[in-house]
Amino acid sequence: MNLLIFLERDARRDLERLNFPASNWVPALEGPDGKPLLDVLVVGGGMCGQAAAFGLLREGVRNFRIVERSERGREGPWTTYARMDTLRSPKHLTGPDLGVPALTFRAWYEARFGRAGWDALGKIARLQWAEYLAWVRKVLDLPVENRTAVIALQLAGDLVRADLRGPHGAETIFARKVVLALGRDGSGAPRWPEFASFTAESAAARSRVFHSADEIGFEAWKDKRIGVLGAGASAFDNAGAALEAGAAQVALFARRPHLPQVNKSKWTAFPGFLRGFGALDDARRWRFYAYIFSEQVPPPFESVLRCDRHAGFALHLAEPWTDLAPDASGVTVTTPRGTHRFDAAIVATGFDVNLMDRPEIAAFSKSASVWADRVSAEEARAHPEAARFPYLGEGFELRERTHRAAPGLRNVHVYNWGCTMSHGALAGDIPGIAIGANRLVDAIVRDLFVADADRHWDALLAHAEDELAQTPYYVPTERR
Fold first, then answer.
1. Statement: residue 404 has pLDDT above 80
2. Nearest-5° angle of CA 364, CA 366, CA 371?
3. Would strands 412-414 and 351-353 be described as parallel, antiparallel, or unpaired?
4. Do 151 and 209 have their domain in common?
5. Could you give the percent of the chain with pLDDT greater than 90?
6. Which pLDDT score, from 0 to 100, does residue 402 have?
7. pLDDT tens-digit map of 34-71
8. Do 74 and 150 belong together in one domain?
9. Closest CA to 61 of 32, 27, 35
10. What global pTM score does this model have?
11. Residue 60 backbone zone (phi > 0: left; psi -120 to 50: alpha; other: beta)
12. Do 70 and 196 belong together in one domain?
């Protein structure tokens, strides 16, 4: 018996009891192009975009669109560049369900594998998490527009103009609010170290040097030698994927003399921190996360053991790459200890947070405040990564670097990894998803109501639903 069918029925019944989706209350407006004005444009249909859309529907904001550049089923990292076997988070944590029990991962898993299966589960398999998210999207009937990319955003007074490209061609729309739910690289781009002999655009580099965020056909490198730069989770996960695909040797290089041992960010996953961090003053917020980032994150022990069980795996500690030179037949890696020759190389150095790297917001990224504007020059030099994070308002909105430089910035909300310095890990990390989505939606709902306060006043004056029409005490309008 397929219990998932019954769970879907129960979930929809719970949602109906919660009056989901709520009736739209936002007045319909016309944009500068004479077309209906969109209330919210959600950019990204992965986990954060889904949660944001769910929250908007629950609060009666229904005039929105969710656009996603990827094919259906390939939203987010889960089926693309995420190569871990299991998630890092404990199985019991909730998030994308936004508090609806029938939409939790546990409910979904027990419907498929029973209570005994749940009890026996250690950590959540990555691809099962992707299946679960797709199921939540299906139950909620979220209108995600796949294969639709935002090419550029521009500020148009208090509105945001969005140039889109989708299956039906180019389109320009205007929105009152934009939510950037663009994932791990949503406030920057993949980080590439600089090497004298390496140019990412060269033919040799494109065919033999990969970033860990690239789609890599590991089967093509069976019986080959691969070099990996990095000491974090993605480095070990890519090394493990290569070894499991049959690579003869995989050598992983790290500049540190030993691997990081303690995941400081794991400590933050409790309600007090997740709910309270954003309310701290700048100095305390900076102190917390500048320290967490400086401590680095160790690879999960499962990822390390996944590699270590292969005879062809080698770990080179205290041996950074000083040069990377791809050619037609291979890749030469230079380190302080000498040179190494590989058939291919993987750069697993993560993502850099830098709004200047986001082509969608190039028109106004320089106007947005970053944390370097809020701390001393000395602190910014000591913690350059933390200093590049956008400095966001209480609703995840961008803030102006100079007063009145670009007032429309407040209508662009950063709901991705870039929010971490301002709000904590409320976008992307499962423990904070529900808290982050609710905070984001509360801010959007508040702003939309305040902006339309005079229209709502007129609607209040016009409200004339007679409560006592069915009673002997009804008084006609003309006699009142």
1. no
2. 120
3. unpaired
4. no
5. 86
6. 76
7. 999 999 999 999 999 999 999 999 999 999 999 999 99
8. yes
9. 27
10. 0.93
11. left
12. no
* Residue 376 identity: S
- Domain of residue 95: give its range: 3-187+352-455
In a domain, 308, yes or no: yes
DSSP codes joined into one string, 306-325: HHHTSTTEEEETT---SEEE
- Does 47 lie in the same domain as 118? yes
* Nearest residue to 118 via CA among 157, 149, 159, 90: 90
Query: Residue 73 to residues 132, 227, 242, 432: CA-CA distances in angstroms?
Result: 11, 30, 23, 23
Indicate whether 168 and 304 sit together in one domain. no
Same domain for 74 and 177, yes or no, is yes
DSSP annotation string for 132-152: HHHHHHHHHT--EEET-EEEE
- CA-nearest of 314, 8, 274 to 136 is 8
- Write out the E strands in 72-167: 144-146, 149-156, 159-166
Q: Do 112 and 250 share a domain, yes or no?
A: no
| Per-residue pLDDT tens digits for 161-179 | 999 999 999 999 999 999 9
Using CB atoms within 10 Å of the CB of residue 19, give its burial: 0 to 12 exposed, 13 to 18 middle, 19+ buried: exposed
Model pLDDT for residues 348-402, shown as the tens digit of each residue:
999 999 988 899 999 999 999 999 999 999 999 999 999 999 999 999 999 998 7
**Residue 280 belongs to some domain of the structure:** no
Residue that is last in its domain, among 316, 349, 382: 349
The pLDDT, as a whole number, for residue 441 is 98
- What's phi and psi for 280, nearest 5 deg? -70, 160
- The answer on pLDDT for 133 being more than 90 is yes
**Alpha carbon distance 103, 429 (integer Å):** 18
Does residue 462 fall inside a structural domain? no
Looking up residue 437, the CATH number of its domain turns out to be 3.50.50.60
pLDDT, residue 407, reads 81
- pLDDT for 1 equals 54
Identify whether residues 23 and 155 lie together within a single domain. Answer: yes
Long-range contacts for 89-92 (Cβ within 8 Å, ≥24 apart)?
89/123, 89/124, 89/269, 89/429, 89/430, 89/431, 90/123, 91/118, 91/121, 91/122, 91/123, 91/124
Closest CA to 410 of 422, 398, 423: 398
How many structural domains does the chain have?
2
In a domain, 394, yes or no: yes
pLDDT digits (tens, 9 = 90+) for 333-345: 999 999 999 999 9
Read off the pLDDT of each residue in 302-324 and give the average, rounded to a whole number. Answer: 96
